[in-house]
UniProtKB/TrEMBL annotation:
Keywords: Membrane, Transmembrane, Transmembrane helix. The keyword Ligase does not apply. InterPro entries: PepSY-ass_TM. The chain crosses the membrane at residues 12-35, 137-159, 188-212, 329-350. It comes from the Bacteria. The keyword Calcium does not apply. This is PepSY domain-containing protein. It comes from Gelidibacter gilvus. Pfam families: PepSY_TM.
């Protein structure tokens, strides 16, 4: 057993010193992004807030969006209706510029601010380190290593040492020498935040390896079925943007329209049950039209298989929103844990090296 424990210690050490820094960056950026809706809304009231949005009907929101689109459709790339912190309508143009409009009368409210761009860049660093193409695999790969080996090896080492005295395993003795105190902080935070970090890592890796997650989740379809009736537009039917904006969906609210970049691309319409942040399941619907306005794909939470329903919860689980404010606070705090574990692990390695050198 001792040789095996030595191997586990080596794995934990070298993975901690290598992928630990990447996970630390991911954790810190993720913690900051948890409060993105509240921060950007507070910093940009003129762009993102309107008086009494709940008095503006879905019909009015869609009508305003249609008028804005028809007035400048050749230049429009994306349309975003009120969702989360944004109570206004925003349009992303083909030249990359973003403007915000009042959802009732369509008047221009202003351009995208620096603070909104900051959080967009922060999310990009969180997901890809800001490196095109390969960045998401670097972050996704480090998250998988953190999930499969770093956390599990740390738990194994903790269990072997403290299984007969669990209280000692979570206790920090504040009046100790630097080395022992450093070790106490490392092992205590590691075990206390074991499950939050496991959940965050598991849900975070989904965004890089979604295709494999969905294949795994499909195993659930054999055990249980969604028995709710089909309430969706049939594939092969003909619709267009104007028709969809003139006829509100009675079960979902339209939140985003993605227009084709070239004639062979698809129109995408994304819907949400609730426009604003709240605890519970995230229920969505997505519709895709080809260049001839024929429906080629339609999914909806109410009629999706269980595997798709699970997949759609990865984001609210990852950011803690599924558990409401308490979940978001827990994710915010947990995001700082990897950098503390990295620093204390690095210090522990330094103390050990220094002791070894002194002996020599």
């Amino acid at each position: 057993m001792k040789p095996f424990i030595k191997i586990v210690k080596k794995i934990h050490l070298y993975l901690g010193l290598s992928c630990g820094i990447l996970v630390s960056i991911s954790g810190l950026t993720g913690s900051l992004y948890v409060w993105q809706p509240e921060i950007t809304s507070a910093l940009n009231p003129k762009l993102l807030k309107v008086d009494a949005l709940n008095t503006i009907s879905e019909d009015v929101l869609l009508k305003t969006s249609l008028v804005l689109y028809e007035n400048q459709k050749d230049t429009v790339a994306k349309i975003f209706l009120p969702y989360r912190e944004q109570q206004t309508i925003s349009i992303v143009y083909n030249n990359g510029k973003t403007l915000y409009y009042h959802p009732e009368d369509g008047r221009v409210l202003g351009r995208k601010s620096a603070s909104i761009s900051f959080f967009e860049n922060l999310l990009n660093i969180h997901r890809t380190l800001g490196i095109p193409e390969v960045g998401k695999y670097i972050m996704g790969g480090s998250t998988v290593l953190f999930l499969l080996f770093l956390i599990t090896s740390g738990f194994f080492l903790w269990w072997k040492k403290y299984k007969l005295n669990l209280i000692k395993g979570v206790k920090i003795k504040w009046k100790r020498n630097r080395k022992r105190f450093n070790y106490d902080v490392h092992k205590t935070l590691g075990i206390l935040f074991l499950f939050p970090l496991l959940i965050m890592a598991f849900s975070g890796a989904y965004f890089t390896y979604a295709i494999y997650y969905k294949a795994g989740f499909q195993l659930m379809n054999g055990f249980t079925e969604n028995t709710k009736p089909q309430k969706m537009i049939k594939t092969g039917s003909t619709l267009d943007l104007k028709n969809l904006l003139q006829n509100p969906d009675h079960h979902y609210s339209l939140r985003a329209i993605y227009l084709p970049k070239d004639p062979n691309d698809t129109h995408q319409f994304r819907y949400i049950k609730d426009r604003f942040i709240g605890p519970g399941l995230r229920k969505t619907k997505e519709l895709k039209l080809d260049q001839n306005d024929k429906v080629i794909s339609v999914t909806a939470f109410d009629s999706d298989p269980i595997s798709e329903q699970i997949s759609s919860q990865m984001y609210p689980i990852h950011i803690g929103e599924i558990a409401g404010s308490l979940g978001r606070v827990l994710v915010f705090i947990s995001g700082f844990v990897p950098i503390i574990l990295f620093i204390t692990g690095l210090r522990f390695y330094y103390f050990k090296k220094n002791k070894s050198n002194n002996r020599s």
